[in-house]
Amino acid sequence: MSDEIREIKLIEIFLKVDDFCLAAERWAKANKIHCSACQGRLTISEILTILIFYQHSGYKCFQYYYESGILGHWSSCFPKAVAYHRFLDFIPRCFNHLFVLAHVQCAEAARTGTYFADSKKLPVCDNRRIGSNWVFKEVAKRGKSSTGWFYGLKLHLIINNLGEVVNFLITPANVADNNEKVLLQLFEGVQGECYADKGYLSKLMGMLFQKGLHLITKVRKNMKNQLMKLHQRLWLVKRAVIESVNDLLMSVFDIDHTRHRSPLNAMCHILAGLVAYGFYDDKPSVILPNLIN
């Protein structure tokens, strides 16, 4: 990504984030809720922009990104930027804004009627260091994925066929994909057809169908085959598109990070990565001919 494209993306992110912060401030005043508009010399819009733009900057070390980029190359965009260690104190205070902003982006995603669901592991440390990891002691759990056991969290994700995130949920690693509370919260307000793997088979499928969501998965070996429409069979084959989204979140947006020193900072990092993905221009997508549908 060239410097010119990065600066354009930086401006795009700031404008969207600033509009969101202004709307949040108006809502807080209308409801008589205290909402700090700034953190010292930096406004909350600038702090959020710095956190989100990190994912698009190409840097893989936040400290180097901040000292070399924010205090160096893009210093004209942030003339009141504070020192790196001072900025770290601001990150936990941004959790509420990042959480709401991530869900606002989900609400803005197109309701195409075709969705894909999957979960992704978020290990917080190497398996050999589980016994000595005290940072996530009250949050992380042991879980098992298709690649083996791990210690950490799990990201449950729904996307539409355009690659936009429709909803997400972060749970401890030992929470199953077909957990009733997870399904009810994850699929709330989603209507149409959702394609997932066999891990989402649940007794709630009938209730979800009554609410307008047809959850379609492959069957297990001990289950009878069921008739399926041609377009549903083709969409089920295309379910791998969500794996591409997960791969982008892990590689480009680095939400899979095992060196956090605070659970709250970890949540801010994950949420910033999800928000940054919303600004990504080349989202994986699948579009089938109208003749099939």
Note the main attributes of this structure.
293 residues, two-stranded antiparallel sheet, 10 helices, 16% strand, 6-stranded mixed beta sheet, alpha/beta, single chain
What quaternary form is this?
Answer: single chain
| Number of contiguous helices | 10
Coarse structural class: alpha/beta
Share of residues in strands: 15-25%
3D shape: globular
Q: How far do the termini sit from each other?
A: 37 Å
Number of separate strands:
8
Radius of gyration: 20 Å
Q: What is the N-to-C succession of helices and strands?
A: HEEHHHHEEEEHEHEHHH
Which regions have little confidence, pLDDT < 50, spanning 5+ residues? none
pLDDT averaged over residues: 88
Helix content: 40-55%
Sheet having the most strands: 6 strands, mixed
Q: How does this structure look, described?
A:
The protein has helices spanning about 5-30, 45-55, 60-75, 85-90, 95-110, 180-185, 205-210, 230-235, 240-250, 265-280, and strands at about 40, 40-45, 115-125, 140-145, 150-160, 165-170, 190-195, 215. The mean pLDDT is about 90. Strands 3, 4, 5, 6, 7 and 8 form a six-stranded mixed beta sheet that branches. Strands 1-2 form a two-stranded antiparallel sheet. The protein is α/β, with parallel strands linked by helices and about 290 residues long.
